[in-house]
Amino acid sequence: MRIRLDRISDEPFRWEERRRIEPSILERPEIVGLGEITWGGTITNTGTGHLFQGKLEYEQTLTCQRCLAETSGPIQAEVELLLVSDGEEPTEGELELEAEDLDVHYVADEIVDTEPLLFEQLQLNVPMRVLCREACAGLCPHCGIDRNRDSCDCQEPVVDPRWAALRGLRGLEE
Ligand SMILES: [Zn+2]
Ligand SMILES: [Zn+2]
Question: Helices in 17-159 by DSSP H: which ranges?
Answer without folding.
Answer: 92-98, 114-124
